[in-house]
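REVIEWER CHECKLIST
Item 1: Sequence provided? yes
Item 2: Single chain? yes
Item 3: Sequence as submitted:
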Amino acid sequence: MSVAIFVIFVFSSSRSFAATSHDVDVGGVTVGAPLAPGGVVWFNGYTPGTIVITVGDTITWHLTGGLHTVTSTGTMSNGSFAYDSSPAFTPAGALADMGPGKLLSPGSVFELDTGTLATGTYHYFCKIHPGMAGNLTVTAGLSTVTVTATAGWGDSVYAVQAFAPENLTVVQGTTVQWRLANPTEPHTITGPVSGGPPAWDSSPNFNPPGPPPVMPIVPGPTFSHTFPTAGTFTYFCKVHAYDIGGSWAGMVGTVIVEPSAADALNTLSAVSYAALAVAVVALLVGIYSVVRKRKP
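Item 4: Structure as written out by the authors:
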C-alpha cells in the first residue's frame, strides 16, 4: 500500500512543483459610499486585463460581481472555443439562456490548466458583455524581462566604485541593463573570463594594464546582456577590479541565473518519472513476494 501511495505522489508531483497559479478577478460591484443611498455601480471587466504565463501554469478567474463568462475568441479545429467557462450558455439565447449552471455566478470560479494550450496570445471576452475583454499570453517559459542595475555612482568629489545590486538573481532569459551613474568616472561591465575572451564586455577595445586611453563607457549610456543559460556569473570592471590568484576583487558583481519554468518542469519530470519507474519495480517486487508467501 505504501509503495502505491508513493507512486501516486511521484506521478502527480512532476508538474505541481513547477507550475504557478495566477488569479484574475471578473466583474465587480460597488455599493454604498461614496454612492448615494441605494446606488450600485457594476464593473464589467477583468483585473488584471492582461496576464503573461508559462505553459502548464494554472489560471483561476474569480467572479466578484455580476454574471459573466470567460470565453476565448480563438476556436479549436472542431469549432469549440479554446477555453470557455460557460459552454452551455449561447449568446443567441440571451436572457432565456441564463439558467442555473450556465453562467458564472458571483463567488464562483473558473480554473484553466494551460498545459494543453499552444504558446501565443489568446483574447477572451464575456458572452454577455462583448466589450468586456482580456488578454492571455502563454510563453514557453523563458523570461522576457529586463532588469536594471547601476555601475558606479557619485560625482567628481565622491565616487562609489561598485555595482548595485552587487548580487543579482534573475530567471533564465532575462536581460540585465547596467547604467553608469557617475558623470565623471568610467567603468566597464565585463563578463567572466575562463581561458579566453570575456563572455561579454561593454568595452572590448579597452585592454588593461595601464590607464584607459579613452573612457571605456561614457557615463550615462547603458550596456545590456541577456542570460540564456542558468548558472552563476561573476563580472567586473576592468578599470577597478583586480585578478588575485584567479579570483576577482574590487568592483565585482554576480548574476545568479535560475532555470526557467520550462527547464525546471522538464528536469522535475525526468527525475519524477525515474523515481516512478523505481517505485513501479518496487511495487512489482512486493506483489511477487506476497504471492510467493501465500503459495502452499
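Item 5: Key structural point noted by reviewer: Confidence is low (pLDDT under 50) at residues 1-18, 265-272.
Item 6: Recommendation: ____
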